[in-house]
Design brief:
The complex is a heterotrimer of chains A (238), B (254) and C (307).
Chain A: H1 2-7, H2 20-54, H3 60-71, H4 75-86, H5 101-125, H6 129-137, H7 142-152, H8 154-169, H9 173-179, H10 194-203, H11 207-237
Helix pairs in contact in A: 2-5, 2-8, 3-5, 4-5, 4-9, 5-8, 5-9, 6-7, 8-11, 10-11
Chain B: E1 2-11, E2 14-24, E3 29-33, H1 40-47, E4 55-60, E5 63-64, H2 70-77, E6 80-83, H3 94-104, H4 108-119, H5 127-135, H6 151-163, E7 169-173, H7 181-196, E8 200-205, H8 208-214, E9 217-222, E10 225-231, H9 232-237, H10 242-248
Parallel strand pairs in B: 3-8, 3-9, 6-7, 7-8
Antiparallel strand pairs in B: 1-2, 1-4, 4-5, 9-10
Helix pairs in contact in B: 3-6, 5-6, 6-7
Chain C: H1 2-19, H2 24-27, E1 40-46, H3 47-51, H4 54-66, E2 69-75, H5 77-85, E3 91-94, H6 97-105, E4 109-124, H7 138-148, E5 152-154, H8 160-172, E6 181-183, H9 188-198, E7 201-205, H10 206-212, E8 219-222, E9 234-242, H11 251-261, H12 264-272, E10 274-275, E11 278-279, E12 282-283, H13 302-306
Parallel strand pairs in C: 1-2, 1-3, 5-6, 5-7
Antiparallel strand pairs in C: 3-9, 4-7, 4-8, 4-9, 4-12, 10-11
Helix pairs in contact in C: 7-8
Classes of the chains: A mainly alpha (238), B alpha/beta (254), C alpha/beta (307).
Chain lengths: 238, 254, 307
């Protein structure tokens, strides 16, 4: 009896307020949406950064201005613009994208791309000209030179990508508008992310449960930042 | 094998090089001497097909390099190697650096499967890479990271990198101006080795003694123009041009 | 009877598979039903039906029965109707009759049905600085709050609750404004929290208030009609299909949903739904006597349009 009594915790921890399946599905949606958005953003950002970094063309300054403006774009405005685009009445209305993960990916893509482009641009601009020349004289094509540039700037680019991911996964305004924060009746998230789930809990005044979800989001963001810092240090050390 | 004829190149409005004519044959070392800032680098970049000059023609074999297709020009470009004044190594191991020229010459399909075996760590280093590093005495440093090399070693790796894919023409732009005598000697020996292999070498240098040591022929570049070309001994001992003579005697100070 | 239907479909499916065993590749996974199975219904609704947990309770059996999924998007009444107006939802469940009527008159909504009702209550701090406790008239209570300039929190979000609140101010002949009147632009739960923090009055639907009562100190000062309060505070919920003649929507499924929500089964679920031991909503769809007004805008008559 005494042994058992000793095992009883002195402070009773509050019970985890959600079904694990519910929380996992929310994490899953968050990572899926932000992850894919970042893949597409990166695929667009890197060529644009290389273009801006190493070529002269008409409209370059304009493009640069768009990117700089885009970095500070409020997410709710992006959400509204994407909503107008994908709404039944909008230009992409036929695709039935309102309240889907695809629409959320679109809006996060719009949000993350300028940031990834700008940070990548700084990274690739730092690659020495003579290293690029070396790739060229050794027989590299334009693509080879671009690949060398990316490889040389890899730490900075990794930082850019992870910073973009951080922005995407912590963002609530646009995914709420275009995603609709939907979970099915059996408690599986469809378009509910960590941030919109937090918003839902807060709306109902359930701040404690909102904090639990906030903690999970915080852990994810901290992990990402830890990776960024490590990579950044690696870049400096090399 | 490679020949410039009446080449003029202008940056903005000021000509940098004017009416240059020069050739290099296989198994020959041509030194371009002249004071700093006289256009030696521009001349080498024209030879490397980096820059298309405004006037004049450049022939590689029988081909006019700026009169052919992009694909043909790429193929010609890949028969040229170049070493810059700075080592300009990639942020990778010595082996990866020297391998680069061979890698870009492979088809994308092969490069992808190379990448795969790289991940599986199942591919060895091509023989020519080790061999090229052997020429500059760094055969053992294959797995060392480029950033950990001394300046002299880095420049030797840079030389091996240009040699590894066995070019027909090797362009050296002041390759030893930042190096100590020991590393300079290694590079000069490597130049001799390249010549023995039948490679046509063009070396730009401001060091006349180096030109005397390594070159078969010398071209003197003064005031944007080639004032004299000829066998090394002739140019140094009995220059025909007055300015050349002054330059060689050290009277012409720029 | 839905259970029977499912059994029948399952049996038919099995028969089809047995009879066409050689063609099972062609049939793929679609041999169960040729109907709506696998489709998705988008429902835009109010935060009050969603946040009280009622919708989850109602939608589960529907999804089960038809093999479909219901995407419930919880917005304010105004936003829910606006989303539907853009053709981005199939069916709307809201609680602001005037806005619903406008939605129907503009041709966006068809087949409106009453579903259920609860009521609004005026809540405030226990100390009741304005002294409205027990008043029999909502307009009188609002006038008193305005005159004493006691803190009042408004949803300010064009929701059903907000619409009702503005209606009461209008009936009271008061133009709310000034330091004591705060628009929050948030959901009911947050508005209650803000009122709680500031010791302010607010108008709340009974359901959200009850589900949150344990976490706040606000008390009911003026009851709604369920507890004998004024009829002004009634809070009826309606459901409408988005007009398929105007928008490209899943009309079949939305009518199936409306049919389900107004069926005895779902109405029983509404009647039996409890949060913190309290009944939040009262079913209203079933009636032996005809109620024609639920189908058309309030006050509509055929004479009025033909004349």
């Amino acid at each position: 009896m005494t042994v058992i009594a000793g095992a009883v915790p002195i402070v009773s921890l509050p019970a985890f307020p959600f079904e694990p399946q519910y929380v996992w599905s929310i994490i899953d949606v968050s990572l899926y949406v932000s992850g894919l958005a970042i893949v597409f953003s990166t695929a667009v950002s890197l060529p644009v950064a290389l273009l801006l970094g190493f070529t002269e063309f008409r409209g370059k300054q304009f493009l640069q201005a768009i990117i700089n403006t885009g970095m500070g774009f409020p997410s709710v405005v992006v959400g509204l613009l994407v909503l107008f685009a994908v709404s039944n009445q909008g230009p992409l209305g036929g695709l039935d994208l309102v309240f889907t993960r695809e629409a959320m990916i679109m809006s996060q893509f719009v949000l993350a791309t300028p940031a990834i482009t700008a940070i990548s641009l700084a990274a690739v601009s730092g690659v020495e000209e003579n290293v690029r020349d070396a790739a060229h004289v050794l027989g590299g094509t334009r693509v080879d030179v671009a690949l060398v540039t990316i490889k040389e700037a890899r730490y900075g680019i990794a930082t850019a990508i992870l910073a973009g991911f951080g922005r995407a996964i912590s963002e609530v305004g646009s995914v709420l508008i275009v995603g609709g924060n939907i979970a099915s009746a059996d408690g599986v998230s469809k378009t509910r992310t960590l941030t919109t789930a937090i918003q839902l809990e807060a709306r109902q005044g359930r701040y404690e449960t909102a904090m639990v979800l906030g903690g999970i989001l915080l852990v994810i963001v901290l992990l990402i930042n830890a990776v960024v810092v490590r990579l950044g240090e690696g870049g400096v050390m090399q | 094998m490679m020949e410039l004829d009446g080449v003029t190149h202008t940056y903005d409005t000021a000509p940098v090089v004017e009416d240059l004519s020069l050739s290099v044959e296989s198994g020959e070392v041509v030194a371009i001497i002249g004071p700093s800032g006289v256009g030696k680098t521009t001349l080498l970049r024209i030879l490397a097909l980096f820059i298309e000059p405004q006037t004049g023609t450049i022939r590689f074999g029988d081909t006019d390099v700026w009169g052919c297709s992009d694909g043909e020009r790429l193929a010609l470009r890949r028969r040229i190697g170049m070493v810059f004044q700075e080592a300009s190594l990639f942020d990778a191991t010595v082996g990866r650096n020297v391998e680069y020229g061979l890698k870009v010459r492979r088809s994308w399909r092969d490069r992808l499967s190379d990448g795969l075996s790289e991940v599986l760590r199942s591919n060895g280093t091509p023989e020519t890479v080790e061999e090229a590093l052997g020429v500059v005495g760094l055969g053992e440093q294959l797995d060392q990271h480029a950033k950990s090399l001394s300046g002299g070693e880095a420049q030797r790796v840079s030389f091996a990198r240009a040699l590894a894919y066995d070019p027909d023409v090797l362009l050296l732009d002041e390759p030893t101006s930042d190096l100590d005598p020991r590393n300079t000697a290694v590079i000069e020996e490597a130049v001799a080795e390249a010549r023995n292999r039948g490679i046509g070498v063009v070396i730009a240098t401001h060091d006349m003694h180096q030109a005397e040591r390594v070159a078969d022929r010398v071209a003197v570049l003064l005031d944007r123009e080639i004032t004299e070309v000829g066998p090394t001994d002739t140019v140094f001992e009995s220059p025909a041009d007055e300015r050349t003579a002054k330059f060689i005697d050290g009277e012409l100070v720029y | 009877m839905p259970i029977q239907r499912r059994t029948f479909l399952a049996a038919a499916g099995t028969g089809a598979v047995a009879g066409l065993a050689g063609c099972s590749q062609i049939l793929g996974g679609n041999d169960q039903t040729a109907g709506v199975a696998g489709e998705t219904l988008t429902l835009t609704t109010t935060t009050s039906t969603y946040d009280t947990g009622l919708l989850g309770e109602l939608n589960g059996p529907f999804e089960e029965m038809y093999g479909v999924s219901v995407d419930s998007v919880a917005q304010g009444t105004g936003a829910a109707l606006e989303t539907a107006r853009n053709g981005d939802s199939d069916v709307v469940m809201v609680h602001a009759r005037s806005l619903e009527d406008e939605f129907m008159r503009n041709g966006h909504g068809v087949n409106r049905r009453d579903i259920m009702f609860n009521d609004f209550v005026i809540v405030g701090p226990e100390g009741d600085p304005a002294g409205i406790q027990g008043m029999a008239s909502a307009t009188e209570a609002f006038t008193t709050i305005a005159n004493s300039e006691s803190m009042f929190v408004s949803r300010g979000d064009n929701s059903g609750t907000h619409t009702k609140e503005l209606l009461i101010w209008e009936q009271a002949g008061v133009e709310p404004g000034g330091d004591w009147y705060q628009e929050t632009g948030t959901g009911m739960g947050e508005a209650l929290n803000i009122a709680n923090e500031q010791g302010a009055y607010t108008l709340s639907d009974r359901g959200t208030y009850l589900s949150q009562r344990s976490e706040i100190d606000l008390v009911i000062l003026v009851q709604g009609p369920i507890e004998g309060g004024p009829e002004t505070l009634a809070n009826p919920y309606g459901i409408m299909a988005v007009n398929p003649a105007v928008h490209d929507v899943n009309y079949d499924l939305s009518m199936a949903y409306i049919g389900y929500i107004t069926s005895p089964q779902a109405q029983d679920l509404i009647d039996g739904y409890r949060a913190n031991g309290e009944q939040l909503f009262f079913p209203r769809a079933l009636s032996e006597d005809p109620d024609f007004q639920q189908y058309v805008p309030e006050g509509w008559s055929s004479n009025a349009t033909s004349g």
